[in-house]
Amino acid sequence: MEYVIEMNHITKQFGDFKANDDITLQVKKGEVHALLGENGAGKSTLMSVLFGLYQPEEGEIKINGKTVKINNPNDANELGIGMVHQHFKLVHNFTVLESIVLGRETVKMGVLKMEDARKKVMELSEKYKFKIDPDAYISDITVGMQQRVEILKMLYCDNDILIFDEPTAVLTPQEIQELMKVMKQLVAEGKSIIFITHKLNEIKEVADRCSVLRKGKYIGTINVADTTKEQMSEMMVGRKVNLNVEKTEMNPGDAVLEVRNLTIKSKASKKAAVKNVSFKVRKGEILCVAGIDGNGQSELVYGITGLMPLDSGQVILNGKDITKESIRQKCIDGMAHIPEDRHKDGLVLDYTLQENLVLQTYYTDRFQKHGFLKFDAIREYAKELIKKFDIRSSHGETSIARGMSGGNQQKAIIARELDRNPEIVIAVQPVRGLDVGAIEYIHKQLVAQRDAGKAVLLVSLELDEVMNLSDRIVVMYEGEIVADLNPKEITTEELGLYMAGAKRSVKNEQ
Ligand SMILES: Nc1ncnc2c1ncn2[C@@H]1O[C@H](COP(=O)(O)OP(=O)(O)OP(=O)(O)O)[C@@H](O)[C@H]1O
Ligand SMILES: [Mg+2]
After folding, report:
1. Which parts of the chain sit beneath pLDDT 70?
2. Does 273 sit in the ligand 1 pocket, CB within 6 Å?
């Protein structure tokens, strides 16, 4: 019995759209099996079939050689299959501990017994060095932490077939290294892992074999050790991809965005998450805020964009004080925001793609007359953006955002924000979850903004992206800017030292 999982000739349709078209996936026991494919290729759909969330129109699934019918996630759990979803399914007003044991509570004489659960959770957290706080609320912890909660939830149920749907998209480089170790540890314990990622380095590092999908179809399975990254990306996209950003010397002008002495309290602890931060982003410049996740970058962006109240400080856009302006006014003044959490702050998931594309402009004359929406105009505009940004979905502009693949949801947000021709784009992890072809495209778009004399404020956790894309780097550590650097004059290692707080070149009062 060679394979723990065999998915044979799986076809899954949404209406007449085939998200999976005759796909075969065979996973060996004790291997990390990567699943690679462009945004919308059908990876998450295939995993949802395996996890019992969708019923395929055709095909069969075998677990340990036995044909099974997986009607729902409970069936999947019974078979030892656990899944960490691409977009977490956590309840926001639950604590970490409650979230992990949800559905698996132990009850003694009608009373919830949390102490045993707590012990087991803490042991697991310790074993895999997750450092979770069991009593923190989900709404207050970082996305990286939420991910660990999802992983613990899966381990808590003693599953031995583990599906990781893009677990690293939301992690910091350090956390990714830790997760890789955890995955190696898990397969060494005899578990089998299906690992979805767009990052070829990660596949190289941890996966034994890799299956490639393209536009719903199965392309092939390769041995990772015998295949180069270039070969893998070509297999997946169907053409050669340039993995480096190309840009000319910058030519900065006046400040577009100026942030003065910003102080913001964190939601979780009432301590200041952003401490007296000041900086400028100039015309024709991509300024990157680098830092390890949780050092105040999220709050900084929420503060600037108006999603979180400021304690003190000012935000100036092209000379105008917009600190107290409404979000709509900030938008009209030329601020665009590609948020960190695409579901919470980027999209209305139950709206269609076309509605999402006009969220900030539906009330303008172009799309509205006498209080009625001009649906024809909205549709035409949506079609234009879909084409320009290659947003793939099952039903074009009328697709419901929730049903779109993660990467295509992200492309929709980027399309909407960039197409408004903003003065400043505030982009937080803009290529999170995008395939290599889409990353190439989005990076080009950000560089084009800068070349057109606009400003870009990029918040990124990824050193490669920071070093490749930015014209200037400020590093945030514990809520403060600790360095203001020229990427050409530093090494990745040095940048890492600033990010870790081991080095500092800017005083607080700059
Ligand atoms: N519930 C649904 N209703 C309609 N269409 C859907 C639904 N779920 C997925 N699709 C469509 O099926 C296709 C495959 O989506 P899927 O989420 O499997 O892609 P993916 O390979 O995981 O992409 P990504 O890398 O962006 O996460 C997409 O075009 C998507 O729009
Ligand atoms: Mg997906």
Report:
1. 1, 88, 105-112, 268, 507-510
2. no
Could you tell me whether strands 3-14 and 58-63 are parallel, antiparallel, or unpaired per DSSP bridges?
antiparallel
What's the CA-to-centroid distance between 403 and ligand 1, angstroms? 6
| CB 305 less than 6 A from any atom of ligand 1 | no
Q: Is 405 in the pocket of ligand 1 (CB under 6 A)?
A: yes
Spell out the residues 6+ positions from residue 244 whose beta carbon is closer than 8 angstroms to its own.
468
Q: Which two tokens stand for residue 39?
A: 């945004």
Q: What's the half-sphere exposure (Cβ side, CA atoms, 13 Å) at 157?
A: 28
Atom of ligand 1 nearest to the CA of 15: 4
Q: Is 198 exposed, middle or buried (0-12, 13-18, 19+ CB in 10 A)?
A: buried
- Shortest-distance ligand to the CA of residue 46: 1
Residue pair 79/70 in contact (Cβ under 8 Å)? The answer is: yes
* C-beta 43 within 6 A of ligand 1: yes
pTM exceeding 0.85: no
Q: Which residue shows structure tokens 């929420």?
A: 302
- Residue 50 tokens, joined: 């395996």
Give pLDDT tens digits for 329-341.
999 999 999 998 8
Interatomic CA distance for residues 191 and 172, integer angstroms: 25
